Each structure stands twice: as C-alpha cells, then as structure tokens.
Description:
- It is a single chain.
- This protein is of the alpha/beta class.
- The chain has ten helices and 17 strands.
- The protein has two domains: 2-43 and 91-155 and 246-312, FAD/NAD(P)-binding domain (3-Layer(bba) Sandwich), CATH 3.50.50.60; 60-89 and 159-244 and 314-349, D-Amino Acid Oxidase, subunit A, domain 2 (D-Amino Acid Oxidase, Chain A, domain 2, 2-Layer Sandwich).
- Helices cover 30% and strands 26% of the residues.
- Strands 1, 2, 8, 9, 10, 11 and 17 form a seven-stranded mixed β-sheet that branches.
- The radius of gyration is 21 Å and the shape is globular.
- The mean pLDDT is 94.
Amino acid sequence: MKHYDVIIAGGGFGGLVCAKTLAQQGIRTLLLERKKAPGVGMHTTGIIVGECAEEFSLPEHLTRRITRVRLYAPNLKFTELSTDSYFFLATDTPAVMRHLSDEALRAGAEIIYDTPYDKGEDVPGGVIVNGAYQSRFLIGADGPRSKVADDFSLGQNTAFLLGAEAEYTGLPLADDGAFYCFLDQQLARGYLGWVIPSVGVSQVGIAQRLPRKPDIDAFVGRMKGVFDFSSAQVAARRGGLIPVGGLVHPFATDKVFLLGDAAGIVSPLTAGGIHTAMHYGKRLAEHLALSIQGNHSGASAAAMLHRCYPRFYAKQLLRKSFEHLAPDWLLSRIIGNPLFGAAANHIFFKKKTLK
C-alpha cells in the first residue's frame, strides 16, 4: 500500500491545478487519470474566459485572443457584441493539458495515466483508493458522472447538455477575432451552436439539453449559408456531457471533496466551468495544505467550499426562461433590439468575481 497526503481522481483543468498547488506546498500528492496521456480524448471546447486568463497565465502560442461575439438568430440575422475591457482565449486544448500536466510534475506531484479511479473506501484516518493507495484526503475531479461522488454518497449531477464538436482546417472566417454563436431551439435547444477561430483550426460545435442529442452534421449543413466549407477538412471530433443543474449537494465531507464538473460548479447559463475548476482547485489545495501541515482535519477546507462555491440561482432562472420562453420566432425578431443586445453583452462580457 502506497501512502499519500492527497489523492486526486481526474486530470482535467481543476485536478491538475490542484495537484500542482499541493505539490508546491510539499504535500505528497497522487493524481490518477484514466486517459493514456494528457490531452488525449478531450471533451471541452477549451474556451478560457478573461478572468481565468488573468489568474492563470498560459503560453501565448497555445492560445488565440477573441475580443468580439457575432450572435446569430435562427433566421441567421446577427448582431455584433464587443467591449474594450474583456476577451476570451481559444486554446489548443490538448497542448494546454500537456502544459498543465508538466507543471504539476515539475512541482513534485505524482501522476499515473491510464489508471482510472475505480473504487474508494472510507477507513480510519483517511481513504483507500483502488485497493492500492491510501491518503488522508480524496478529491473527486472525475467529471460530470463522478464515481467518487457515488462511492462516498455525495451529490450527483442530474441535468446535462450534450455537446458535439469538430475541428476544421481550411475554413475561412470573415472575422478571425470573433466568437460566432448561433441561437436555434430546433438544433440547439437550451444552448447554442458555435464557430470559433482557434489555434491552427476552427472549432465548430453544438450542444443541446438532454434528452435531445446534437446533430453536428445538420448544424454544419445550416452553416454552409454563412461559411464556405468547400475546402474545409475535419481534423478531429469530440463530444461530451456538460452539467447544467448547478451545485450538487452534498459536495464535501471532512475527507472527500468534489471539484469542477463533479461538483456541478459549471454555469447553467453559459456552460463555462474551466475557470471555476481551476480557481477552486487552487483554493482547495491551499486549504488542504494548511490542514495537513497543522495536522488538522479537512473541516476548514470543506467550510471554505461551502462558503465560496457558486450556487447559480439567478442563472438557473435565466436558463429555464431561455429554454421555455424563447422560441425561434421570438429570437429572430429581437436579435437587433437594443435591449436584447445590452442583455447579451452583459452575459458575454460581464466580469465575474470568484470568492
């Protein structure tokens, strides 16, 4: 049996930042990741909001700055949204994950790839994972259908979007600094479609609220009236679940903590969860390091999460309103309305402060 202070299940954005921060504090840290290598089989678009880019610097060659949004109605009329004080970063997501993995390893974390979290057991003084590793604390950063949450009777996500995305080479875009968003309740009920100029490719994707499933080929067919796909080639495809039901309950004990998608700390409105995963991964690591160094329980770390994790009450209401009160004919009619533009500008560009 190998012994650690903290075991992290899942090597996504939050898990890797958490592992790096713990290791920097001299905490014996093990991260288990089911994928064979960092960046393999990604499910996310990898869009980084401005606040996250400012808090966590990434190598410039792995990102592309996006400063405008072109928002399309179902009839393909659009409105331009922009601000001088905000930006997004499109990323080469597999390369970003390799970078974050290398940073965690350099800090001293142990990472075992091709080894999924299989089973956890509560024992006096800690937890045993996979029958082979023991630690004082366990962090479940293992995605929207968390096995850690299931094993330790923590809250589970129940509401999801299902997204599908293709990366294209050779797809010309009129504005390569814009995030193209498409509202269409027939093709993307509960969310939207998107075309994003990224690093060396263009990302074309769509998501729908389950139980509806996204039809990316139908979306691409519709987009042929906006973009020239004649020379475009698919370089990669991906897809996955996005939890949009808000924070799960309970999400922590004094030994086990959920992080990222597993905790449901994903905006129900925008489906953005990278910044919250990274920010709270760092904060959780800092609190656990203090607990370990002071030989205390994890109660203070759990209390911090209870105090700081976002609840998304307003965004839940906005999501329900969008799903049930915004038919395509209405979206097409109001796309150029100044009030609608102001509201959309607020959603896309308002800076969000995390505790």
